[in-house]
Amino acid sequence: MIYPEYLQKGDRIRIVAPAGKVSKDKLLPGIELLQDMGYEVIVGKHVFNRHFQYAGTDEQRATDFQEAINDTQTKAIICARGGYGSVRIISKLDFSSLLKSPKWLVGFSDITVFHSVLNKLGLASIHGAMPAFFLENKKPTKSFHSLMEVLTSGNSELNFESHPLNCKGSCSGELVGGNLSLLYSLQGTPWQLDTKGKILLIEDLSEYLYHLDRMMQNFKLSGQLNDLAGLVVGGFTEMQDNESPYGKTAYEIIYEAIEGCHFPVCFDIPSGHIPKNLSLILGANYQLQVAETCSLKRIQK
After folding, report:
1. Distance in angstroms (rounded) separating the CA atoms of residues 60 and 291
2. Which of 109, 143, 146, 271 is catalytic?
3. What are the chain's domains?
4. Which of 51, 171, 218, 224 is 20 to 30 A from 33, comparing alpha carbons?
5. pLDDT tens digits, the chain, 301 residues: what are they?
């Protein structure tokens, strides 16, 4: 796995919007925070464009992203937001420059599409907060501090309380995954996730419970849950139900799909569409401990 260089003050960061349309009010304070910390921040030419629900046309979003990929002086690409649209521009991008000039890609939610592409290419990336989540009440959030710790040192450790559905144990392995709906959308494509022997991270937002079950059954039937080293489950927030209740919570649906836990499983980790969205390096090796208290810690050699 290739790890880009960690950031130092003065390094260049590019902001791109590969998916949903972006609000200046939500984005600019986060950009100013990075600038105040001494980083050079370049915003993509089309970041504030609007094309229906997207931040510009497919071509415009891809152009900004490709420019960031190709810039040898850029050390990190931070996505402005998720939403929907990343999958539409994969085929328009040439990622080969990243292997010659590696740089960190940061984001979550819809950005899971790019995390999966980079994982296949053998390049680590960061599942973490985007600029709209850098500040709360004009103060840097824990999510932002966590991201900067990873970007500047590579240190990544999450400690959290146990959950009643957890399956105790310990394991180590490469961390992969992200937003479950986006992982599901890549099934049967060249970017389908390889989960064998790995720690799988999943999280999601505003999905119907029956559709969550459909996705989990897909991963089960495809064999992608058979040989996991471990499973870490982040926030499944604002989940929706039909008029006729599904009868299970999101976590219960996931628990049922893994059939008795033949590997360590930890629910409710601080990752995903939640206020405390701590950064993780996808592609890096982690140690997972699931006991009365739990931890997920990067193994650095």
Report:
1. 48
2. 109
3. 12-153 (3.40.50.10740), 157-298 (3.50.30.60)
4. 51
5. 999 999 999 999 999 999 999 999 999 999 999 999 999 999 999 999 999 999 999 999 999 999 999 999 999 999 999 999 999 999 999 999 999 999 999 999 999 999 999 999 999 999 999 999 999 999 999 999 999 999 999 999 999 999 999 999 999 999 999 999 999 999 999 999 999 999 999 999 999 999 999 999 999 999 999 999 999 999 999 999 999 999 999 999 999 999 877 899 999 999 999 999 999 999 999 999 999 999 999 998 7
CA-based torsion, 272, 6, 174, 191: positive or negative: positive
Q: Specify the length of the chain in residues.
A: 301
Per the residue annotation, which of 46, 115, 127, 273 is the catalytic one?
A: 273
pTM of the complete model = 0.97
By C-alpha distance, which of 214, 217, 260, 254 is closest to 236? 254
For residue 211, count CB atoms less than 10 angstroms from its CB and return exposed for 0-12, middle for 13-18, buried for 19 or more.
middle
* Catalytic-labelled residue, pool 46, 127, 181, 203: 203
